[in-house]
Amino acid sequence: MVKRGPKRGYEQTKEHAAKSVVARLGKSFTWFDDEEFFQGATKRKSHNLVRRYARLIPQNRCRGCGVTDEWNGEKLVLHLDHINGNRDDNRLENLRWLCPNCHSQTPTYCGRNGRGFTGYSHSPETRKKIGDLNRGRKHTLEARKKMSVAAKKRYS
């Protein structure tokens, strides 16, 4: 039965839903406190995670190199890094703020921690070449060292 008057439509539906959930659970709605939120390895929405972590630990400095939130006169956006590489592990001791440069140097940056497709049976040498190409390394370590020495001579 639809009520007439100020409470009808959306407001009535919202009120009914709240009452039925409270009745089924036998308790009122509660919000997670911060410690309870970060415990366990459950999935959370990333923007909620960043917002709660930013409230607990200010993001004014990179934990890798110590750079502040400004770089070359521009605002620097710090990344929220999961230290062990598990994006579902949102405990405070597993999270840290890193600048984009430090974050890109971590072994777990952008899926480098082995979450990718591993169905192909390439040889170890071929897998290394593919990995180097995916990371933008088109030359061997020795060739990169030679190019670095040549560049230092040229520009010094």
From TrEMBL:
<feature type="domain" description="Nuclease associated modular">
    <location>
        <begin position="135"/>
        <end position="151"/>
    </location>
</feature>
<dbReference type="Pfam" id="PF07460">
    <property type="entry name" value="NUMOD3"/>
</dbReference>
<dbReference type="Pfam" id="PF13392">
    <property type="entry name" value="HNH_3"/>
</dbReference>
<feature type="domain" description="Nuclease associated modular">
    <location>
        <begin position="118"/>
        <end position="134"/>
    </location>
</feature>
<dbReference type="InterPro" id="IPR003611">
    <property type="entry name" value="NUMOD3"/>
</dbReference>
<dbReference type="GO" id="GO:0003677">
    <property type="term" value="F:DNA binding"/>
</dbReference>
<feature type="domain" description="HNH nuclease">
    <location>
        <begin position="52"/>
        <end position="104"/>
    </location>
</feature>
<protein>
    <recommendedName>
        <fullName>HNH nuclease domain-containing protein</fullName>
    </recommendedName>
</protein>
<dbReference type="InterPro" id="IPR044925">
    <property type="entry name" value="His-Me_finger_sf"/>
</dbReference>
<dbReference type="InterPro" id="IPR003615">
    <property type="entry name" value="HNH_nuc"/>
</dbReference>
